[in-house]
Amino acid sequence: WSVYSKPVPANGRELWTLFLQCSCITAVIGGLFYNWMFASLEYSWHLSIAMAVSFSLLLLLTLFLVHPARCVFSIIMPTLGTKQGRKLLLSTCIMIAVVNITPNIISNIKTILQVIKCICKNSSESLLNSTALLETASWEFGDAIQETGHAINIHRPMNGHFQFSLLKNSSFIYQQMRLTGEKIGRDFLAVEVLVKDSVRVGNKLVAGFSMLYLCFESAWYLKNYLTNVRFDNFYITKKLECLAVDRKAAYLLVGSSKNLIRPTGLKLSREEVMLCLVQAMLLTVALMLMLVVMAMDHFAFRVADTAVRKAALFSVVPVALSIKYSAKIEILSFLWKFLPLPSKELPHQYFERTYQHNLTFSSAHCRISPPTPPNPSLLLVTGLLFCILYATIFLETYAHRLCRKIAGSFFKSWEEKRALYLYKKLSRKH
Q1: Which of 224, 263, 306, 414 could form a disulfide with 401 if both were Cys (CB 3.0 to 4.6 A apart)?
Q2: One domain for residues 46 and 154
């Protein structure tokens, strides 16, 4: 660390040591950068490799040649434990939800629509087939009426059959149903693509902005550290303790223990505790939204699974068409009582038949994709990420303290000036 934090290496051995350190750091960071771009941000592999190699070479030259850049890069590491690091982890959680949970929800919704489409198709086919039953019944009933007309010679109807306008070709209905199903499928696909593309673009913008702001925040911290002796200067450091002991003023540190904090201690000030609680509440809101998305995934799967199982259990509905027809013909029957005409036995027609038909709502020939269950590992990964996020809330204060310690190790002479300023400030107050 002493070689790494030195402004200029003292000899050739330290120069090669620094180069080896920078090379190892850039190799690890380049691999992580490639994995982040390819797996999380979903860039193409060749673009990810090109960006990772270019970034690694540029980082190697910058770390090896520029001393303040090494300090800024070192400060970035603990800064990942602050709100900027939480933004990156949240973007990772969002990408997990978009890439894995959202397509699963849409797939289960498609399964539900396929069940509805199957029921509509089979019921419409069965209903269209029932028109043939009506045609048969009407034709036989018309024959019975014709027989009644033929039984007497006074009047004969031209045709006793009923005329039905039946749809014998159901291809038009099937075509309309197919077009409707394709339109619904295209609409769902368009929504799925739109949601994925929007979240991908938004996540890439957030991730890029977070990385840039992470570098900017580290550089801003180092700039304030080097230009303002009052900035982040309320810690009881070893240099301050040595200075107080040398000047026989150790009582200053004891009397100011309420206002000063030891950087290696676990004590949190009241302001730091309140800030942690506020950050935890905001993170809880994000956690609730993520749980709502996961609950929607489980709900869609349960509905799709129930729809598929219930559709397979739909029974056949029997339909019976019963026709009862009775005809008795009497033509001025009272004349037969007065006129000496031979009696004529009039016909009495009776027609009774029942026609059976079954309405079906489901079929084994329907193409229904099985419902996709939620991935239990996603819940584990998301829970682990949010545990890390909650941990970073309470570790953020210690990350800031580590940033100050890193800056002090890179600029030891300036750290001595800051300790002297704080000592004089305590002396004036005393």
Answers
A1: 263
A2: no
Identify any residues that bridge with 321 across adjacent strands, giving them in sequence order.
355
The dihedral region occupied by 166, where left means phi > 0, alpha psi between -120 and 50, and beta the remainder, is beta
Which of 316-352 are b and which e, b meaning 16 or more Cβ less than 10 Å from the residue's Cβ? eeeeeeeeeeeeeeeeeeeeeeeeeeeeeeeeeeebe
Residue 389 and residue 313 share a domain = yes
275 and 163 inside one domain: yes
Q: At what angle do helices 171-227 and 67-79 cross, to 10 degrees?
A: 130
| φ and ψ of 327, to 5 deg | -130, 130
User: What are the DSSP calls for 210-264, one per residue?
Assistant: HHHHHHHHHHHHHHHHHH-TTTT--B--HHHHHHHHHTT-THHHHHTTTT-B-TT
**Residue 258 falls inside a structural domain:** yes
Q: pLDDT tens for residues 244-275?
A: 777 666 666 665 555 666 666 666 667 777 87
pLDDT of residue 209: 76
DSSP states of 337-372: GTS-PPP-PPPEEEEEEEEEEEE----TT---PPPP
* The residue to which tokens 């079954």 are assigned: 358
DSSP reduced 3-state for 322: strand
Q: Final residue of a domain: which of 13, 45, 65? A: 65
Query: Hey, what are 108's tokens?
Result: 């289960």
188 and 48 both lie in a single domain: no
Query: Per the structure block, which two tokens stand in for 116?
Result: 């509805």
Q: What percent of the chain has pLDDT over 70?
A: 76
From 128, 195, 138, select the one nearest 166 (Cα to Cα).
128
| 15 and 123 co-located in one domain | no
46 & 109 share domain:
no
Q: Are residues 269 and 158 in the same domain?
A: yes
Count of domains forming the chain: 2
Residue type, 10: A
Structural domain that includes position 55:
1-65
Q: What pLDDT score does 69 carry?
A: 86
Helix axes 83-96, 270-312, angle to 10 degrees: 0
Residue 83 has pLDDT above 60, yes or no: yes
Phi then psi for residue 317, to 5 deg, are -95, 115
Contact 84, 369 (CB under 8 A): no
Residues 60 and 123 in one domain: no
> Could you give the CA distance from residue 156 to residue 348 in angstroms, rounded to a whole number?
16
